[in-house]
User: Fold this.
Amino acid sequence: MRIRDDLEGVVYVAGVVLAAGDTIPDGVTVGDHLTVKEQTSGTARKPRGRASASRATAVD
Assistant:
């Protein structure tokens, strides 16, 4: 498991400083609200949010 990518700041746990994206070492426990499970399938996650429509541009 690792710390969420959108975490701002750092977390101090058991003498370890963890920042966004850091892997949580074995034996260190943090709350679920700070973590994201790592993907095991090897596929990339799709970005969230709305896709914007493409806009045509005028060519003179």
Observations:
- The CA atoms of residues 1 and 41 lie 14 Å apart.
- The mean pLDDT is 79.
